[in-house]
Amino acid sequence: MASHVGFWTRSLALGLAVLLTGGCFACSSSRPAPQPVVAPPAKPSTVTATSNVPGQGLDLQALIGLTKQAKDAESLERLLNQPVSINNLDLDEDGQVDYIRVQEYGGGNTKNFSFVALLKGGQEQEVANLVIEQTPGQPEATVQVQGHPAVYGPNVYYSAVLPIATALFLAWALAPRPALYVSPYGFGAFPPYYRPYAPVPVATYRTTVTNYTRNIPVQRRTQPAIPAATPSPNAAKVAPSFRQPLTQPGQTQRQFQQRDGNRPVASGGFGQGPASRRAIPPSSVPAARPMAPPPGSVRPPAPPPSVARPAPPRNFNTRGRRN
């Protein structure tokens, strides 16, 4: 009887063990597998780049295209200084596009126009000049734009041959007139229609420029298509506080950019980096003076004077000669 009881007891215990083990396996199999933690995708950072780098803020090819829309020099100046135009220059980096003044100069068979950017503080920087020449008896005229060497580098020319009948500005410029156009405006004395505006991003500016350069046969040159008969009266106008890294700076501009401690290091030797990162040569640091002891304090005893060491005895060899 005891053996039967023991048998049933062992069988019952074994069954409970199998039941519990099977339940654990069932529980573990019904649980979902842990999923790896995936970080949410990072939001793309938006970088707004402006086209205020010299040579990019005023497209010279678009300046030729603008002659097909302007009816005279005054309207050309107005088109240059309105928002979403081909003028996106911010040479002094004050957050506003620089106003460009137009001045006609010279005479004879060629018509010449100088474009000068007005910077803060009344400084002026010529950025380009435009020359128009008509071959006598021809219904076309050659239009040439040269970038100022300080801004665009040396020998940067763009030229195109345009029909006079389709370019109102050319017809006005080549017609006889009693006087040359000289803009009456200056820094702080802008026309009433002008409202300062901020530079636009590069992508927006390039789209705007495309609207002025479409279907215009502009050629890039390293030599002028129209020899300069009359030099620009504003060629020597350079802004000393020109903050952008210049392509070919003048001596005054170079000195200013060397003194400007907030500018990064320029590749052309125009600056030496921020003032906080400029190394001071050890020779220029004055030696610290010893501090005088406060009144009433006991001076420490002076160190004993140094005693000169006696000269070493002369060494003679066996023949009596000194080594």
Strand arrangement, major sheet: 1-2-3-4-5-6
Largest sheet: 6 strands, antiparallel
Oligomeric state, counting identical vs distinct chains: single chain
Structural class label: alpha+beta
- Number of helix segments? 7
Kindly report how far apart the N and C termini lie. 124 Å
Task: Write a brief structural summary.
The chain contains seven helices and six strands. With 323 residues, it is of the alpha+beta class.
Keywords:
323 residues; alpha+beta; six-stranded antiparallel β-sheet; 6 strands; 24% helix; globular; disordered C terminus
Give your account of this protein's structure.
The chain has 323 residues and is α+β, with helices and mostly antiparallel strands. It has a domain at 60-261. The chain is 24% helix and 14% strand. The protein has seven helices and six strands. It has helices spanning 2-30, 60-66, 73-80, 149-152, 168-174, 202-213, 251-259, and strands at 99-105, 110-118, 124-134, 140-147, 157-163, 219-221. The protein has a six-stranded antiparallel beta sheet. Strand 3 and strand 4 form a beta hairpin. Helix 2 (60-66) crosses helix 6 (202-213). The chain is globular, with a radius of gyration of 41 Å. It starts with a helix and ends in a 64-residue tail after the last helix.
Topology:
Layout: H1 2-30, H2 60-66, H3 73-80, E1 99-105, E2 110-118, E3 124-134, E4 140-147, H4 149-152, E5 157-163, H5 168-174, H6 202-213, E6 219-221, H7 251-259
Antiparallel strand pairs: 1-2, 2-3, 3-4, 4-5, 5-6
Helix pairs in contact: 2-6
